[in-house]
Structures
1.
Amino acid sequence: MQTAQNEAEAVAAGVATVAIPDEIMQQVAEHKGCGTSGGSGKASCGSGAGENDLPPEIWEKVKNHPCYSEEAHHHFARMHVAVAPACNIQCNYCNRKYDCANESRPGVVSEKLTPEQAAKKVLAVASTIPQMTVLGIAGPGDPLANPEKTFKTFELIAKTAPDIKLCVSTNGLTLPDHVERLSQYNIDHVTITINMIDPEIGAKIYPWIYYNKKRYTGVEAAKILTDRQLQGLEMLTERGILSKINSVMIPGINDQHLVEVNKAVKSRGAFLHNIMPLISAPEHGTVFGLTGQRGPTAQELKALQDSCEGEMNMMRHCRQCRADAVGLLGEDRSAEFTTDKIMEMEVTYDLESRKAYQAAVEKERDAVVAAKQEELQTLAGEHSDIKMLIAVATKGGGKVNEHFGHATEFQIYELSTGGAKFVGHRRVDMYCQGGYGEEDSLVTVIRAINDCHAVFVAKIGGCPKSDLKAAGIDPVDQYANQFIEQSAIAYFKEYLDKVASGEIQHVERGDAQIRQGALIAA
Amino acid sequence: MAFKIVEENCTGCCACEPECPNQAISETANGLFIIEPAKCTECIGHHDEPQCLAVCPIDLTCIIDDDYPRYQAA
């Protein structure tokens, strides 16, 4: 072990000019000393859950993790390093073959990194983006099919950037073999992609797996996979490691079945369930893309998420990002950190300034919560069955602070007398490119938020405003730079008043289209 | 007596490299992988099936190299 540490230090020193004073290391060690007896997440806590809804030791683990806390994802960023290209299973929604400028699927990256390059990249990003709190290894293959590269990367980063949370995303096939090591490396968060617990269904999703030096196919392969996944999940729970379950919703194949999956993973202690829409554009060349297997509509996805919500926490803010994504969820700054650029960068890891920045963020999020609570009081005593969706253009910080024309995605909130609840997001093409509006992209924007009654923006031009109105979507710019939930509740209160007075009539909206592909830099 | 990797199909994912019982697979300068024919035994005597073929994510990438006679176990 001593040899390994020395080696890691030598490598780290070689890739970055880092000097972290001992007292800071000590502070970090104390900070990391939060309870690890977790794994007992409450059934009612929701991914939007806050400090008061979760046991303190669990809250400590998720509060700055953008993937595990919906609330945190407005404020904190993550990055993935693509050190794990090999995979040990084949999925019908994945094609490892292509990568081009427009390519934007999980499983595809522009360049793979060595653990040493990855460690340098993490330092470079952490120094540039102080709200970057989480490092994940998510492929582009399976991290645990590349255990040496994955763990070497974790080891290097734990030494040079000890305040960064480490997490890993796996298909679960070899998870039982690695749980002990994950636990030794203080990996608090593990994501397993579980699309089925019924091998007959699995055979339609996985053509083969590679296990114990042999390729298995069909039902036999799916049986091994599901057994290993569930065993791995149980082992994580035993050790108090938080687990998130990713499931790809494939209409006609596993959509109804995911309710059973949800129960199975909940009963084994999973913390969070993330049901994602299938990405299956024909040009990606995946089996599902070529057979014309469609993904779900926005309503279908939300209905399934809603039906599982009673069972456990649902994640609805996943952006299905690439294995080399960098930034807040919903933005991608990976182009700023290509290997060539990183190798030229002089990096100084300034833990103190990162902490100062994060303390400021902490104040900001307290303000968001306070504003929401205050506004919620105004809904007390209101009785109405009306539920409606709104789309919000935001750059982060929990505020309505993005111009309509600059938005590459809208966040979706469901408003009811219970308050404003984050229920998803919709990716769109930027409407305004180079300062003028593009007619075609406005059509796709409207299609993407067609189920919403209103769109909240910091600013919007006259033309798109009237087109949105014509489509029945209210363009709202009166809450520019104000907190999202507070604004949404105020808007909803006003809406209910207008309905009550007969000034407007409430009508249900139609369905909306989920744009294919994960977010990449424009 | 050997498998070969079809260059235009190889994605450079490196899944095959650690599985080869003969250390016959190595990375090229452009990040793809090649099999050294003299070292390849088609996994005969080691495993029931050729490991590179079993783990490769792309069909028709690890294939028998017709330029060499099939491997004969000693």
Note: Chain A is about 35% helix and 15% strand.
2.
Amino acid sequence: MELEKWRKEIYGCQRCGWCKASTYLDQGIEKICPVREYYSDGFWEHFFSRGKMAIARGVLENRFPLTDDLAEAIYMCSTCGNCEVHCSRNYAYYTLKFIDHKNNRNVEIIEALRALLVEKGYGPMKNQLLLTQSVEVNGNPWQQPKTTRTRWTRKLKIKDLNKEKARYLYFVGCTFAYDNNINFVPPKAVGLLNAANVDFGILGTQEKCCGSILKRTGSKKLFVKLAKENIEQLNSLGIEALITNCAGCYKTIRNDYPEVGKLNFKVMHVTELYEQLIQEGKLKFKKEIAKRVTYHDPCHLGKHSDFYDPPRNVLKSIPGIDLVEMYPTREHGFCCGGGGGLASGFRDLATKVGVAKLKKALETGADILSSACPFCYQNFLVALGNMEAKITFKDVTELLADSVIGS
Amino acid sequence: MDLANQIESIVGAPNVSKKPWVVWGYSKDASAVEGAVPSMVVMPTTVEEVQAIMKLANDTKTPVFPRGSGTALWGAVPVEGAIVIDTAKLNKVKRIDEETLVCVTEPGITFGELDAILHKSGYRFLVAPENAQSGTIGGHFASHGTGTGSAIYGYQGDCVLGLKVVLPNGELLITGSALSPHNPRHFCRYAFANDLTGVFCGSEGTLGTIVEIALKIERLPEAIDWATFRFDHWESACEAGMMVRRARIPCLHLFMGHFGPLDVIDPKGAPHDPIRTNFTIEGDKDIIGIYKKKLIEIVQQYGEYLGEEAARRSWMERWRTMGTMFTLGVRAMIPYLVPFGKGAAIFCREIDKVSHELTEKYKEYKLNVFFVAGFGVDRGWLFANNVIYDESDSIQHQKAKEALREIQDKAYELGAIPYRIGTYWAKDLQQLGPYFDVLKKFKEVLDPNHIMSPGVLGL
């Protein structure tokens, strides 16, 4: 049982409850767990991390049988990792500062619980099952044929890395490739890379899902199988780096794949490359964007990968943009509700969390909320549809392209 | 209709659970004690619901454990078959009375949540535990309550003006001036004869379920300032703390940290000063400088002034300071009180020595027994000992409980005063002759069926 791997961490829970509720007004921190705060019954122990750690302990001690409602409680979590950041185990008494929160494994423990639930037939949730089955059948979670993966590339000339070599692989990811509401973002990324004369290509219809959805929702065996296939394919390309504008793909390939197999290339989020290209003077700004913008840290990038500055630096470099922080920020930033299978498993709850985050963005007086993740994009679009707000959402790529390319 | 169904008819199905995996999560607090798994957990949303639950439990002689945030460190855990009343949904602020400087709140709100609400109105509560972020107002009051603010304001019990308590028979008891049918406002605790509020302060859920608390509040201070000092000896550190109190310097937080043991956790990161004290003072803008000057003059006679930064950070993170040395393992903690005076330094030296001896004694089991010092509380200190262990190892867990008992016995023998009892100090309380007899009589009068938190306080 994978859960055994985290025995010490599970029993290491101090039961202090910091993952339940913490308020630090000076840092803008008022809430910790999105489920505890926005699920109507979120006050029960099992809806925030301490209770989930208790369940993990109970499972290890064989204290109760697994059930469907237990599974639902375990899946009702965006795995944002805010509980890890605010865990007291993580707090250095003598320096009075949070230390490396990656010492905590709450997210991995929840994923291990989900893996057990899948193994025993209690997971994933019904809607999530459609996605995981689609990954197996179609190579993407969105129940779309493999052949339409490149629909976003129409009229674009992009190197096909199945046929020729390039320095970078642009790994688009299923969500940006297939979701008609947001699939205008990859062409903008391509435009930017072309504008900077970057030698890159794509895998086209041969690109497969990174497996993030499988990993997050507990289909561990399928994930390992898919990851192995992808690692073999990606390692054969001879690329220097894989670049992606999907935070989920970034986390999965960069953080999770090395557990399955060695990678012979670097994994970069596209904003990291943009930052580099701007510094080198290879991306030139044509248009001023006189807007106030606030940036939302996607959990996959921020809390899970310690990746905070490149998207901000890119936004700051765009002429006219007034970048304002939305508090709590960076590792303390509140989740959008779109990750960890929450949006696919519990749509209403994910929307509520998204609306709450949008309200935080509105407090900054920003005209635009920006981020660098397709799941955040999807969830904020749903949230925007559920509230009247004078704010729009734009991916960092969109804003940069607007300024550099003018479209 | 069985008991669970009856309770469901009171609070509604979503607010009660007897699912094994749910109730399991309510079997422990933050102590080393393994509690029994309760038969059900109920989450009432109104006072009337609490009354109906208590009456039903009393009629069926079912044990009841009121629960705040489950963060007690002294073993306030359920017994087999108990109903846990989780007060999480009794979390509303009823009113903030700016005339009398009183905040009336339900017990399940956390200090962090209440602080956010009060702060926005320009107010603050006076005393909050080190674990204020998740700790509840009700749970803290039920165990007297100390923490930040205690150096000047004493115990949380001292900051409570009245209560609403549901007694085991379901009756609602109101204490303090709000009992008046003609002027039901909380502003005086000592109205209507005896101080019945005090009867429930520290009762740890053994006499009833608190459903409303009237807390003293104050305006946010105009200014706050800080100072940190290092000391080579317990004598100088303890004396300095006492002298600051005697000088009536408005010291919000007087935190004395024993950093020596932290070398074990991080030899590079821990300060190597043997003892540091952080002072946080409050006052109006025009006089805080005078207080600070006076503070430095006094304390410099005993230790070295290190500036204000460490104390400032300690204050900013005041609700995360104590007991956060968890990188080594789980912490079992025993807090106790020691009065100001020369005896405090002797106590510190002795208990520190015993802690080292116990670490050595339990070396085979990899336990770390620390004396962590503590903070000023009115006329004395709240000190604490930690035992750090690995709870995934059942032998270590058992040995940790034994080590904790040993250090607790030694502290008591050296003059420490138990004040948060739970099950940890229950046996010691039972030895107190007429005092314990009176406690038992209170219990018999208010809770004749012994349904409330059986085992806690040794009752």
Note: The longest strand of chain B covers residues 209-219.
3.
Amino acid sequence: MEQFAALLDALVYTTSRNAKLRLLADYLRDTPDPDRGWALAALTDGLNFPAVKASTVRALMQERVDPVLWTLSRDFVGDTAETASLLWPEPSGIDVTPPAPSMAEAVELLGQMTRTTAPRELARLLDRLDASGRYALIKLATGGMRAGVSARLAKTAFAQAFAVPVELVEEYWHALAPPYGPLFAWAADGANPPDTQAMPLFRPFMLAHPLDDTVVDLGHFAAEWKWDGIRVQLAHVGGETRAYSRSGDDISATFPEMIAALQVPCVIDGELLVRGSHQGGETGGAASFNALQQRLGRKVVSKAMLADYPAFVRLYDVLMLGGVDLRELPWSARRAKLEGLMARLPASHFDLSQVLEADTFDDLATIRAGARDEAIEGLMLKRRDSPYIAGRRVGLWYKWKRDPLLVDCVLMYAQRGSGKRSSFYSDYTFGCWNGDPDQGGDLLPVGKAYSGFTDEELKLIDRHVRQHTVNRFGPVRETDRSLVFEVAFDSVHESKRHKSGLAMRFPRIHRVRWDKPAHEADRIETLRALVRD
Amino acid sequence: MAADFSWIRPAPHGIHVVPADAWIDPSRAVERALVTHGHADHARGGHGATIATSETLAIMQLRYATSAGAQPVAYGETIRLAGGVTATFIPAGHVLGSAQILLEHAGERVVITGDYKRRHDPTCPPFVVTPCDIFITEATFGLPLFRHPPIADELAKIEARLGSEPERCVLVGAYALGKAQRVIAELRAAGHHAPIYLHGAMERMCRLYEDWGVSLGDLRLVTDATKDELRGHIVVCPPAALNDRWSRRLPDPVTAMASGWMRVRQRARQRNVELPLIISDHADWDELTTTVLEVNPAETWITHGREEALLRWHQLNQRRARALALVGYEDEDD
């Protein structure tokens, strides 16, 4: 528990991703089983102790600290677990403090607690720990570590710690429950990996590289649209169906109609979209990403949601069919299997992402340039002989995104970055003119970006911000609105969240227009004309 | 009870000693000021006469470049003010020269702590408990969650970091008056004899401490050092410089901050601190409450800080207390 508490503290105070990876990898290598497995589960929200709630902790504190002092302290700290860890009275009158529990012991005791025993048992555990340990224990018990560790980061750290491929870590991870003994046995001691074939598990996605200036031979590559939904994997194995997002999160509960629709034993890869008038396409239209967003992140889906935003999957690939792993086959062979499979899937919920016909690369460029639909992000190019390989492998799959949209915006606010950028103003909020700037029109914020510029440009923008500050709000500076950015973005949508009523997708600084006077930047109307909802 | 003490009046900009027409730590220029210590929120320039310890006057002269009207007092010395009031300066243990002020008038005793702590500090004499009728105390860390750990434990974290990441330096943000010198003196006492590098803004105050007999060992300026020379060493700077452009010249610094606020994780995160060091020159909750019990005054007045919780503690312990709404004292960097 003490090592875990130290790890948690170190993670909290570390902003750099690489430093977090190092901390995690060191911990996973140096900590014995099963403690490291429990720690991994705790950091990725893989543990649940229903008998211990935040209210249990509050009740314990009410018995030990004056309620007024508790409230004043809790308000100052802003976190119940941390306040409790700091205010917990150190046990007195005990000659020999019992040793701090190990991670495994803490998990076991927490798991055994009931609503009735939790207050007494939790108090006993807290008495055996120092302030850091108490914080870690309460976070472990009640969830929400707030240590800035995503599941992906944890898996990457695991792969780094034992020098194993992260794709395999991901595949086996989903087959196992905490504390992941066989995963460590495989990675650390070379034991056989768990058998994943017969389970409805997540299989890591094959991903694409940006095409950039590469020109490919269409004799070797097939082209498809790159649809603008969310990449999804559906698995029907062993009589069960699951849906997984790109990061491997189980999103079955969010899309129950897709779970019901897939009854053929297979693992398939496609783009999840909702029906709409936008993309005419083949067997039915898709709405823009904005419509799909209504469906994302919901644990409970209402009937109205299902009716208003019906989901379907446009299929790209098939990974397994009837219990046979097809991932080693070339793309063309898998594609044939996928086309054969379509007849067995309900057309109401599945269609096929069409292969685009083009004789030459130039023809393809023309097709891409003509794509104006919101449900299309660009083109995919897939090597016809490529196996399905987890992750990004050079030369197999390329994405060729649509050219970004561009507007000229004026820098309004800048905020200091974190980690390496902590001394630089590197996060920018920019606006467009609402009305004619020469007739009293004002700027309205339209977006925020923190990428797209070089380190050299960052230094210059940072200097500009410092020299043109007119106001400070904590870490934010308001500037005198004299610098123009050419901002690139993928699309723009109506949004009630912003005063301008518009929200950009993937905005980034395309060029710094040192030469352009601020009043020549674009108006809100220009941006609004690009909305295609 | 309090009505008997009409000769001492808290006002928004300081405590007025009426018969002597003198002010304690006034936040604006007055004819006659008694100053507890040299921090800018207590010691302002421009008074007609300034009565303080010699150390505090030296610090004020360094900061305001004038010593007009300076009247030095030694610790333990009692001076006579107008109107039958006497004042005695008693060590407060906060920073070099810091004093509590004992005021006596017609047999009534009032102690004003200024800022204080009860821990050992190699740079100044320790706090002396002084019985009184009214105890006017600070409450910067007046919440029960503030418990400062032993300073040795915190400094050991610096040494551990230098050991585990010798290619980096540890950049310690510390208040330029008091905290910085205490941290350096404690590091020396713990056997750290390597050069310690200073931000330019620290240099003169460190010199002043050395002139007053606090030896700080081998101090060098960051401006005179190369990046490689700084690797594996401790650099001390004012808190404001931690995330400033200035720090770009350092070799991948581990950002540390020496402050009582570092007890709270989010406070450390807000300042991008990688290595929080819970080191304060103020009394923590246990010191505040223990001191009230030891001084055992008839009434406590609380000047600044988190006075609500300390008031509540007095109520729970059946003690009389009131909060004075003084303006201008807040030590976000301590």
Note: The interface with chain B takes residues 9, 12-15, 65-66, 68-69, 72-73, 76-79, 82-83, 86-87, 416, 418, 422-423, 462 of chain A (CB under 8 Å).
4.
Amino acid sequence: MSADSTAQSTPPPVVQVRDMDFCYGTSNALFDINLKVEYHRVTALIGPSGCGKSTLLRCINRMNDRVPSARVTKGEVLVKGKNIHDADVDLTQLRKQVGMVFQKSNPFPKSIYENVAYGLRIHGEKNKSVLDEAVERSLTHAALWEELKDRLHANALALSGGQQQRVCIARAIATVPDVLLMDEPCSALDPISTLKIEELMHQLAKEFTVVIVTHNMQQAVRVSDYTAFLHLGKLVEFAPTEELFTNPREKLTESYLRGTFS
Amino acid sequence: MTPPATTPANPFAGKQNRRALHEFLTRWLLRLGTFSLVIITLGILLHIAAKGVPVVFQPKWPYVNSKFLTALPATLHVIEDSKGHKIEVDANEADQVKAALNHNIRSETTISYSGGGILGPIVGTALLVVVSVGVALFLGVACAIYLSEYAKHGKFLEMVRLAILNLAGVPSVVFGLFGLGAFVLTAPTFVDVPADRSVFSIPFGFTTLSFEGWDTCVLSGGFTLAFVILPVIITASEQCLQAVPQGFRETSMALGATRWQTIRYSVLPFATPGILTSSILGIARAAGETAPIMFTAALAFKDKLPWQKDLPPLPEDASFFAHWEQSVARFFGIFTESVQALPYHIYTLAAKIPQNEYAERAQYGSVFVFLVLVASLAASSVMLRKRLRAKYRW
């Protein structure tokens, strides 16, 4: 009983980045990053353009592997306690459990159903009822089921921009990942669609752990529990969101938040 | 406000007349260039249609000269009787007609290849196109996928691209000779006893893999033509793959798909319409080339279709299996027999026999049918592409 309660009071972080350096070829993009992402929390990464926040996000599901010459040169990234650069890590399993939503909503030009079922299909799921159930569950989580349940077989490209992005979220959560990475998911959307996705994020955090990159500081305040501020490849400050925005410890954070530089 | 007493000197004066003339001349020069192109194209098509339609079509039922489309080429005999009537018959009926005329014959001329029909060349060209486009699409798409999705940028890739560009510039007769050397004379094949010319052979006991070539046949010609159209197909396919948004690949990988799954489900389906378009160009080119098939597949004259191979007659009581074996052998004649082909047939008619009105008729008929055949092959690819595009558009 007591062991349980201590485990709940300090659950192990789902993502832990330790002393990580990251390079593109010979130029260092990230320096000595330390970051802990707690289960069922929304963690926001903020910072000026080019500070490395997207790169850091893509380190968590090893999407940077697609870039030749990009690699982690020091430190390690642990997801669910496992170093994801270990040789026995199956990349497809890692990415199944660490989902990602991109800046530009990019549904496949297929039906809504096929979009959401894509992840399960490539992982070998053929059972129609399992797929049906997963599609319904994912679309419900993405607050789309009521809107779209009658037109699941319509082309996803016929939807509005906001709906498309939520289909992408549904697609990413269909494989029931532990962590959902979101790379500026609202930057191409209108304010109302943005609001919907922000509302969604609070819901998603109940089921998943969300890490979001955003250039919009208000958005970080609205959606996140923790915020990390990056500048020129260094993690300047990492704290609970309220604390970071009301009482930043670092001068650099304060001047960024005041808009003295951007 | 009073208007100025005198109109001011035009502040925008210039050499506008000269400019206008210059502009006028330029526009008309470019326009003439464009028009002349259209006129020449139309001229060629109309000329061929005008001379070819009377050969292929006829004024009375069934309106199509079915013999021209369904008979094999034959030598035409033109027999002039004592009254000056000219009777045109194919070689196999010539004796009959002569006997009926009972030596009341003023003259008899024979014109090679101009009688009968052109079924042999049509079938041959169709087979060559199918084999070559099939081989070229397989090799070309495989190569394009590797170059676009797998290969790392660098020296090797540059060299491969240079090689593809060079391949596109090789004269077609060189391809013909390459095909002769590679496919007709040295390609590997399974035989019981290797021929003397076999480059080397590997015995397996029950059979022998002998590098003695495939002989002149549809397969040799089709493979040779495949290499002629390969550069077009690789280049176009690679462009089509590159045109598929990178986001599709990223998303698919981020969902845990392997690279091949990503290509199979999120890249290839969307590139297929474009790849088919490139195969249209391939079809037209493969159907039209003469030099590559001259040494590898085509004959000037053949009185049999590829599946009518001569085989020893079977005894009365031959087993079902023996009949079956012969049918299979005949069927595979579509790959292993040499054929006539339309472009080579046209070349023969135009350059290898004395020219007269009868030869000309056969020429125009063949050319017209050839054009219609290529156009309809291309049209069917366009239709297929249209349907696929409607299904997979982004």
Note: The interface with chain A takes residues 152-153, 245, 247-248, 250-258, 261, 265-266, 270, 392-394 of chain B (CB under 8 Å).
